[in-house]
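INTERNAL AUDIT FORM
Audit reference: QA-55
Scope: verify that the stored structure record matches its stored sequence.
Auditor: D.O.
Record contents follow.
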Amino acid sequence: MTVLGAIFLLAATSRQNAAALSLSLADPCTVSDFPALCRGTIKGQTNVNAATDVAIRELMKRTRQAKEIAEKELKRDGGVATCLSNFNSAFDNLDKALTNIKENDGFSLNINLSAALTDYDTCSDAMKETREINVIYKSAGVLYKMADNCLALSTLVKH
């Protein structure tokens, strides 16, 4: 390959990478496992920091709602108790994640979002073990997907 050919190939590759990057910024949800849910959550945000912030805030709102539902359960032991505890923990982790975005601390952001993801997964597992496939179990599944999307978006956050 000639030097000129290598330069042309490098320039073409760089343009493709730049185009791919601008595409992901035009739609940050392309990095998520649940893009339709992500797009509905971030409501057209193209700034990745703002999109991640909006996604986390929506997840906190939904977590609060799921916690309220779990608190109304007549049987508040076993899986429900585990979910209540984990919803509280997830909320705290998400609150820390919002601070991490403001401080441009991508490392801590990923840790706190991963912890929230684990909280929702633990709730789902606890409900599965009790064989209580109910609104709390279903809520935990949606919250897990939303947290997974937040974690995916966080990989785009500028550090």
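Auditor finding: record pair retrieved intact. The mean pLDDT is 85.
Action required: none
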